[in-house]
């Protein structure tokens, strides 16, 4: 998909792309208001890469799909943990808005940051979840639909 083709965001020299594993360099700031404008733009572009339907919110399904594009193996439990920690009370239930997403990354202490920047993966946890779903007679594809 590639971000920043939208007129909402400035075009960057290095186009941010989950599919190509091109992520922005995070600024030293830990608060969004302390970020340089270009860093905030980069974070917005990264957010847009996850927000596939363009509604300004990231759902669990969109988060899962974005992590898969990065060749990660996110478990349902990991996606749930990320959603809970990045969710702000002003966002609709079970969604993450830009501010919560950005703060999770800027803190450098979140599971979202670990997945994107530290090479974290939950492949073993995912394999256990798939096996449990298989034993229940459900397919793994239905794990993220409710």
TrEMBL record:
Keyword Nuclease attributed: no
Highest taxon in the source lineage: Eukaryota
Coiled coil: 116-143
UniProt keyword annotation of Electron transport present: no
UniProt-listed InterPro entries: EF-hand-dom_pair (IPR011992), EF_Hand_1_Ca_BS (IPR018247), EF_hand_dom (IPR002048)
UniProt cross-references to SUPFAM superfamilies, sorted A to Z: EF-hand
Alphabetical list of PROSITE patterns matching this protein: EF_HAND_1 (PS00018), EF_HAND_2 (PS50222)
Alphabetical keyword list: Calcium, Coiled coil
Domain EF-hand: start-end pairs: 38-73
Name the UniProt record assigns to this protein: EF-hand domain-containing protein
Protein's organism: Tetraparma gracilis
């Amino acid at each position: 998909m590639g971000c920043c083709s939208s007129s909402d965001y400035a075009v960057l020299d290095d186009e941010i792309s989950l599919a190509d594993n091109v992520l922005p360099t995070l600024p030293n700031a830990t608060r969004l208001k302390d970020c340089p404008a270009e860093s905030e733009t980069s974070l917005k572009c990264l957010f847009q890469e996850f927000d596939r339907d363009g509604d300004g919110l990231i759902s669990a399904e969109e988060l899962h799909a974005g992590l898969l594009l990065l060749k990660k193996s996110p478990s349902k439990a990991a996606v749930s943990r990320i959603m809970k920690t990045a969710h702000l009370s002003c966002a609709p239930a079970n969604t993450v808005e830009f501010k919560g997403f950005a703060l999770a990354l800027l803190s450098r202490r979140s599971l979202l940051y670990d997945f994107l920047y530290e090479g974290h993966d939950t492949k073993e946890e995912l394999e256990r979840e798939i096996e449990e779903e298989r034993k229940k007679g459900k397919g793994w594809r239905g794990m993220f639909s409710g």
